[in-house]
Amino acid sequence: MQSLYADFQKEDAEIYAVSDNSVSDHKKWVASSERIDQVNYPLLADNNHILAKMFASFDEESNETCPGTFIICPGRKFKAFELNTTGIARDAQPILKMLRSVKDLRKNKNSTCSISCQR
What we know:
By secondary structure, the chain is of the alpha+beta class. It has helices spanning 5-10, 23-32, 34-37, 50-54, 92-107; strands at 17-19, 43-45, 58-59, 64-65, 68-73, 77-83.
């Protein structure tokens, strides 16, 4: 995500990384990982699973949070989301493409996404 963060910002979007680890765990993680130390967007702690439950990404049975991507528009409306099993890699490029599609649909009054959103 970090490699395309500037592209997300050009689209007037913000990225938040949320994990079910505590703030102190995040601090240790940032200190021990050069890659994570380079991240310029907020890393939020959800160790009580409040956001995970609100976004329906918490599995009560296994007591685990599924990794997910959520595109939320002004007015707090979910426009696109994806939940994955833990361990499945996610790529920022398709997420950026999805964001552009959502923006195109909003701009064109929910008609079919035009080819212009496929940049």
